[in-house]
Design brief:
Layout lengths: L1 E5 L5 E5 L6 E5 L3 E4 L3 E6 L4 H9 L6 E6 L5 E5 L4 E7 H4 L2 E3 L4 E5 L2 E7 L3 H6 L5 E7 L2 E7 L2 E6 L4 E4 L4 E5 L3 E6 L3 H6 L5 E6 L2 E6 L3 H11 L4
């Protein structure tokens, strides 16, 4: 397959299949447009258990699989918020752990499942729920970035502390835990919440400049109460 990312503010990825039988899948409602010669099937990809797990990690219960019935069939998947679409060769990266909602679409050879955080504190206080997304296998996966993408390559033992909503994904060699903000004045008046995400290298970390949940909360506060 071939692909290209279109647009700047609300991007989409457009995929052209090389041959009949190639497949892409996305969460329900992720497809934006497509040509003739593509068949769609909605299913609980991976079975009922994995589907329930995906639902708790922020994706839909049913996934939509699109199969090319002829060469040069085309399909596009659009982002849901302003930002970027990030292509990742998941086989070359060795797999990623992602926050919920980061997954946009992937080739059929890519596996999307749930990943329990290694430390209970990360799940209880992380702000993204106890379950994260585990992306593995081989082939291309496309991630949604809120705002702009920032990448960090952490050396062994190197630490970066991030507002949880600004974490997109990290390699499986990176450890993930939650650290409490120190100092009562910082907790109550710092405006950053009680906890930060602590990521420790080695490995690649993908961040985003916008925390969409925080942005949506600010909009909600401006809506007049009836």
């Amino acid at each position: 397959m071939k692909y290209r990312v279109l647009g700047d503010t609300m991007p989409a990825v457009e995929v052209v299949f090389d041959r009949a039988g190639e497949m892409m899948y996305t969460q329900s409602g992720g497809m934006a447009w497509m040509s003739e010669g593509i068949a769609m099937e909605s299913n609980m990809k991976g079975g009922f258990g994995k589907s329930i797990g995906r639902m708790f990690s922020g994706e839909s219960l049913f996934m939509a699989t699109y199969k090319a019935e002829r060469p040069d069939a085309m399909i596009a998947f659009a982002s849901t918020v302003a930002g970027e679409v990030l292509p990742v060769d998941i086989g070359a990266s060795g797999g990623l752990i992602c926050q919920k909602g980061a997954f946009l679409c992937a080739e059929e050879s890519v596996t999307l499942s749930v990943a329990l955080t290694k430390k209970l504190s990360a799940g209880v206080f992380g702000g993204e729920g106890f379950i994260l997304q585990d992306i593995s296998g081989s082939g291309m996966v496309f991630l949604e970035i809120d705002g702009n993408k920032v990448e960090k390559q952490l050396t062994p033992g190197e630490v970066i502390k991030v507002d949880t909503g600004n974490v997109v994904a990290f390699e499986k060699t990176v450890s993930y835990e939650i650290e409490r903000v120190k100092g009562l004045k910082n907790i109550f008046f710092g405006g950053e919440g009680l906890f930060l995400t602590k990521l420790t290298g080695p490995g690649r970390v993908i961040l985003q400049t916008q925390n969409f949940n925080e942005f949506a909360g600010r909009i909600a506060r401006l809506i007049p109460a009836k």
